[in-house]
């Protein structure tokens, strides 16, 4: 690679290093204010859809009620943020909340 190796070299890639000053420079760059980005977002966190069958359909089945439902959590995030989750941008070591979709049938006899 055409990297900086000796004093006076003119290169676009910095000198490879594993020493403490290089590590401290990396920490300063990753925690500094040079990483300020637009973290605005819109989230669809919870939604539920249910349908109860009408009584005229329930009488032949001898049921009091029958309800079908679907609910979801953390369904969508709309953002230009490049990290995992703009709601928790400080930690890039944690995963965003999981998307959960649950469905079922509730029957009363």
Nutshell version of this structure?
This protein is an alpha+beta fold and 109 residues long. The protein is built from 2 helices and 3 strands.
Low-confidence residue ranges? none
Counted beta strands: 3
Order of helices and strands: HEHEE
Quaternary status: single chain
**Shape label:** rod-shaped
Strand content: 25-35%
Helix content: 10-25%
SSE layout:
Layout lengths: L19 H12 L9 E12 L2 H4 L6 E15 L20 E9 L1
Antiparallel strand pairs: 1-2, 2-3
Folded structure, characterized:
The protein has 109 residues and is of the alpha+beta class. Helices cover 15% and strands 33% of the residues. It contains two helices and three strands; from the N terminus they run αβαββ. The chain has helices at 20-31, 55-58, and strands at 41-52, 65-79, 100-108. It has a three-stranded antiparallel sheet with strand order 1-2-3, with no helix packed on it. The longest helix has 12 residues, at 20-31. It is rod-shaped and about 90 Å long. The termini are far apart. The mean pLDDT is 83.
């Amino acid at each position: 690679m055409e990297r900086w190796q000796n004093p006076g070299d003119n290169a676009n890639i910095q000198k490879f290093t594993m020493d403490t000053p290089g590590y401290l420079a990396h920490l300063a760059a990753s925690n500094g204010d040079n990483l300020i980005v637009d973290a605005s977002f819109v989230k669809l966190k919870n939604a539920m859809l249910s349908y109860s069958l009408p009584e005229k359909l329930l009488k032949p089945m001898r049921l009091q009620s029958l309800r079908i439902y679907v609910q979801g959590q953390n369904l969508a995030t709309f953002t230009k943020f490049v990290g995992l989750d703009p709601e928790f941008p400080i930690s890039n070591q944690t995963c965003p909340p999981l998307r959960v979709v649950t469905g079922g049938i509730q029957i009363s006899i």
